[in-house]
């Protein structure tokens, strides 16, 4: 009787693998490539593992797959127009899947990701730039709303004064009405004297 197949999957294995490869690189163990970086006279060399660089960068993958002969026990790759600090951050990212950089370096990290054809780093930089842009837009929106609320609060006192003045004027008119309908003036306008009874007016007619 056949038993059902079960899946053995480790959630921590990829992280442990990356951590172990990172430690091997830092210690210089089993490294088979040296990357020489030079920018405006500043030069530095970094040792790494071909397999890691090839798996994370199409640029390095093409270089390693197309190399005809090895220069010895370790392959040498030369990179121009790449800043030392940026390549160090790139290496840390491909070995740990994370790196901390200053905000003004995010664009440079995006450029090196595109130069070395590292899709993971490109997507990470794009997402971070999008978040930064959204936060700036949100701050501008909040600032604009606060300005509008200040302007509204500044105009409210004058509106209140105008409404109070209108209310006072209405109250004055209510307290001092025009002549009442049965006033002596109305009766005079009807041709009747207040002292003249209705019967006398009939006799005259």
UniProtKB/TrEMBL annotation:
Name listed for the protein in its UniProt record: GZF1 protein
Protein origin, superkingdom: Eukaryota
Single Gene Ontology MF annotation: RNA polymerase II cis-regulatory region sequence-specific DNA binding
Residue ranges occupied by any BTB domain in the UniProt entry: 31-103
Region (Disordered) location: 166-205
Gene name linked to the record: Gzf1_0
Gene3D superfamilies cross-referenced by the UniProt entry: Potassium Channel Kv1.1, Chain A
SUPFAM superfamilies, A to Z: POZ domain
Pfam families xrefs: BTB
Organism annotation: Pelecanoides urinatrix (Common diving petrel)
């Amino acid at each position: 009787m056949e038993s059902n197949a079960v899946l053995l999957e480790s959630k921590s294995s990829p992280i442990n693998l990356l951590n172990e490869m990172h430690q091997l690189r830092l210690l210089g163990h089993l490294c088979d490539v040296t990357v020489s970086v030079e920018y405006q006279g500043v030069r530095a060399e970094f040792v790494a593992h071909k397999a890691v660089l090839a798996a994370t960068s199409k640029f390095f993958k093409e270089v390693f797959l197309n190399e005809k002969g090895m220069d010895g026990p370790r392959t040498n790759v030369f990179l121009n127009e790449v800043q030392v600090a940026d390549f160090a951050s790139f290496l840390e990212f491909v070995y740990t899947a994370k790196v901390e950089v200053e905000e003004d370096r995010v664009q440079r990290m995006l450029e090196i990701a595109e130069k070395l054809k590292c899709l993971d780093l490109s997507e990470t930089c794009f997402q971070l730039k999008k978040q930064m842009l959204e936060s700036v837009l949100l701050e501008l929106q909040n600032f604009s709303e606060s300005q509008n609320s200040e302007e509204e609060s500044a105009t409210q006192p004058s509106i209140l004064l105008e409404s109070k003045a209108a209310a006072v004027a209405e109250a004055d008119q209510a307290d001092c009405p025009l002549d009442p309908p049965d006033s002596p003036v109305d009766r005079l306008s009807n041709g009747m004297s207040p002292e003249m009874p209705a019967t006398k007016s009939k006799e005259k007619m």
